[in-house]
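Minimal example, chain plus sulfopyruvate.
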Amino acid sequence: MNDKSVVESSYSMPLVHAAHKQLATWVMETAALCNAESIQWCDGSQDEWDQLTAKLVDSGTFLQLNPTLHPNSFLARSNPSDTARVEDRTFICSLREVDAGPTNNWQSPDLMRRKLTDKFKDCMTGRTMYVVPFCMGPLDSPLALIGVELTDSPYVVVNMRIMCHMGAEVLAKLGSDGDFIPCLHSVGKPLAEGEQDVPWPCNEEKYIVHFPESREVWSFGSGYGGNALLGKKCVALRIASAIARDAGWMAEHMLIMGLESPDGAKTYLTAAFPSACGKTNLAMIVPPESYAEKGWKTTLVGDDIAWLWPGKTGKLHAINPETGFFGVAPGTSWHSNTAAMQAMAKNTIFTNVALTDEGGVWWEGHSEPPAHLIDWTGLDWTPGCGRLAAHANSRFTAPAGQCPNIDPMWQDPDGVPIDAIVFGGRRPTTMPLVFQAFDWTHGVFLGATQGSETTAAATGAVGTVRRDPMAMLPFCGYNMGDYLGHWLNMRKNIQRLPRMFHVNWFRKDANGKFLWPGFRENLRVLEWIVKRCQGKIAGHETPIGWTPDWKSFSTEGLDGFTKEQFDAAMLFRREDWLAEITNQNDFFLKLYHSMPKELMCQRELLMARMA
Ligand code: GTP
Ligand code: SPV
Ligand code: MN
């Protein structure tokens, strides 16, 4: 299309937005294809937020919470069929199938483009199309990526305003010819003349589609989380991982946090845990009292995504490309995560949690159940009624700046220097509480073979152990074997390598009880990690890596936690590990053609050490 059609379009466009011809043309073409009733260019202002939240309250999508309990906060209840990411409907459409690899759904870009063009035709009839310019990463970071999401969901717009830099400042940075990642989103529910809208429009047929080579995202049919807030998983992980491979950096599903030990030394670490396996909890950890008294301090940089590159200090540096949390609500309480509770005290959007009679929010694990609630589906709920009050994947969208221990460097364009990388997942058996990799390549092997019980963050079976390399299985925008090769290659560019660790908070005893108290007490594991990074403490060498012993691991102030319990949480059993190695077979076979030889070799070495 050319400028002429922009001018001739039936949509009006403020002149200032026509400055970027390519953007203006794409906006006009898309509005025409989707038959949007009108176009709204989003500036990210408070006025815009007020206008959109009022509209969402009017349409029944939002319920305003009691402003004395939760100022400027809202509850949304989704359609019960649209509550989590849809991995089987997520596609990587590279030109060649081999570039998507055996762990991704692939379709030919041409075919997919044709199919989607058909789907998007007239799909915004009766709706406004919002133009949402956004920037992942601090605007002045060398890694910052700009995208523009076109969406017919005002719910998406207000969530995006919390989750990333959005609006006028991004458009200004884009100027008249800046590069941007086009992201097209529709809930896929056109409104016929006079048709009444539903509170949560969506479509049974969903497509979450990525074109990693041309760097575009098309998402159809869902309004929820990672399916619809396209800056997050689609851009900052799937598209960014492909960009990072080409440009020598890494886009990872990791939290970033800082730890200040009593001597004043600051250690930053990242941790890759699969969805709903405790990243937010660990990122926001508050030291137990005995640690706080000694002078331990914790800070948070990010809770879900880290972009890493070799920085000025010779270490890997990390930025959090997001500005908000889209955190799991169930299990979050003043006891388990005070920082999260403070972060979501105001200016927060809750999705699929329960509503209290006072106009507050509640979920399983929040506090003692109230005598009456309205559950996430809008029905009356009483304790013992047999239903969950909040959906297992219910979430809060809260501004990161509201977290009381946000790190002073969290928006630093150069990121924070990383000393440790931690892998982990939900492993009811086999995996000890903590162990350290012998070196970078062994660490990459630990990350590559990490597994976890599946959770409610994606639709499908919950509770079976699956391999989830670097917690990136659902988020890698290219061939997983090539991705692991990229990890190995990065070693050459990092002068001061981080140490690598594997943790497991989720090991259970014969009665199904967690062997480790977890949550705040995880700081004890972090202390061991920090001291290992500082070279202050000896490790115990085992076939699987370096481990702490009872003496070098602090349990002071951890009432009643015995050496027997520690040994059970740390136990290395040869039989379990032989089964583990056998169980990794399927994964190695699946990636046979692209799996780096170094990782095959690591497997051999592990078996040799076990013999
Ligand atoms: P995504 O946002 O989906 O990427 O996940 P996340 O990794 O940020 O998940 P989050 O921190 O929200 O995980 C929440 C779940 O982990 C809840 O069910 C918590 O109860 C559980 N959890 C977190 N930390 C611990 C821990 O130390 N021990 C145990 N047993 N459970 C934990
Ligand atoms: C995850 O599932 O890892 C999330 C939530 O962080 S979502 O944004 O929905 O993907
Ligand atoms: Mn996540």
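Residues 253, 275, 304 surround manganese (II) ion (ligand 3) (CB under 6 Å). The longest helix spans residues 231-247.
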